[in-house]
Amino acid sequence: MLTSEATGHISLQAKPQIPIQKAFPRVASPSPSPEMEAARESMAALVDAGLHDCAQTLGCFLVSSATASNEAGMSMKVESLVLHGDALHGEKEYRRALSAYKQAMQYSKSIPRQATGNTRSSGTATGRSPSPNSCSLAALNENEVKFKIALCHTALREHREALQEMEGIPSKARTLKMNLMLGKLYRISRNNRAAAVCYKECLRQCPYIFEAITALAEMGLSSKEFSLIFSQAPNRGSKVPGDSLDAQRWWNRYVEAQCCIASHDYKGGGLDIYLDLMQRFPNNVHILLEIAKVRLIDPNIMTYMDEYAILLKSKSDYTKLNKLVHDMLHIDPARPETCLALAALWERKDERKALTYAEKSLRVDDRHITGYIMKGNLHLLLNRPDLAVTDFRGAQELRADLRSYQGLVRAYLALSKCKDALFTAREAMKVMHQSAKALKLVGDVHAISSSGREKARKFYESAIRLEPGFLGAALALADLHVVEGRNKEAVLLLERHLRQCADDSLHIKLAQVYAATNMLSDALSHYQSALRINPHNEAAKKGLERLEKQMKGVDPDAPEEDEENEADDVDGDQDDAELL
């Protein structure tokens, strides 16, 4: 889903001249100096790279420099103000960003019209000025700046002001992101008719706008009406492929599910469609969460709730997991989903008891794939990779998916069968071609040996190129950098991904790298950031506890005096009711 804090790239066309402010003495400056032009180009590069702190500091110099008296100088002044606003927005200094954008608009409007001609429209702007002495100047793209002003108002929860700014953009000049923003603002102001117009226009430009689909379904649009809108989309890459009936079918089914849920048709409609889509897209987190939402309305739903339990366990959200298991035990304790949810809950405390529940799920239903996956992972935790191989093979016989390949690779590596692990990873690549996760799996095998690390690096980098947001490959590549002593490269890689996605796992990995290089205060900051994002994260809690010992000068690996006593106090026979 698009967020309201995404900043569009600056757009500028020919920049006009404005009078020198009377508060300052006139400075004779025929054109911006090459040094200032180079600084502006550097600032644009910093903004593009997401280095907003550096960019906004440089912007302070650019926007406070003496204003040139010719068109090129005024053009650079306006563009510098917009860039400064972009940098401040990236730093979440929305009030200051608003001021910078409004100053840019004011400067632009006070330039004689003949200097800009008719270039103040929404035409695509370069965002870069030509040579300062050039006569072909680009004008400020006022519609883009208005959109940025609206983004700032929205971030400050000033929705009325944001709406006024957006309504000042002509309808024909609105881009996809502008229509989506305007649709949100109209919904907030309870103008559903105007919101529907904006959302429909979004889908005409690109059918895969999930937020627009959900909003229109909630407004009562039918699946037939959606099909009509999709048919009006221009013939380009974003259109649902007409020559691929399979692709069109699953998307239409997803839209139909959204319509069913919005009209409160759960069991006979929306849920059944989601379950059907799960067969087409196994382990799809988005669909799992949609099913979980349906469960909030109908708590008796059991299908795929074991997958939801595993998802909650991976997020260390044991409060929700506890509640889920409690509900499932009351609905039907004999279902395989209930057994696996219990296994997920017990895994943290007693891996052997968790294994008994995974085995029980397969006695209830020997074709339950998740049961084999769970059992295999537990055998790996219990240091029985030989048994894990059998479990993951059992899952593959029913349906080969990524989890079974990942499990097999881990099991073969634990058995030091590197050739079998590599063969399995390559097989995954053949079955799931164009899969970043399969590429990463091959990299994992190569990374085991020092001679294969260069190949591993190439596979990890290929996975990131194929799927730039794939954190698994980024974390694995960072580990590889650390192993080879390239801590600086690891930090730069992780920070780059952190600017794109504030994820707790990235903060934890950064904290580990900083702790290993004895930069303990930086490590502390990142562990705290991880816990702010996910207060339940066990790895962050343990890392923070270990770090605090280091900061006190205590060996974090030294056993505590009462550690053995605590282990003896664990009651292995604790029943489910007590655990819950």
TrEMBL record:
- The UniProt regions of compositional bias labelled Acidic residues, in chain numbering, are 557-580
Q: Where is this region: Disordered?
A: 109-133, 541-580
Record PROSITE patterns: TPR (PS50005)
| Entry-linked InterPro entries | TPR-like_helical_dom_sf, TPR_rpt
- Basic and acidic residues compositional bias, start-end: 541-555
**GO CC terms, sorted:** anaphase-promoting complex
Enumerate the Gene Ontology biological process terms. cell division; positive regulation of mitotic metaphase/anaphase transition; protein ubiquitination
The TPR repeats extend over: 504-537
UniProtKB keywords: TPR repeat
Source domain of life = Eukaryota
Q: What is this protein called?
A: Anaphase-promoting complex subunit 7
- Per the UniProt record, the source organism is Leersia perrieri
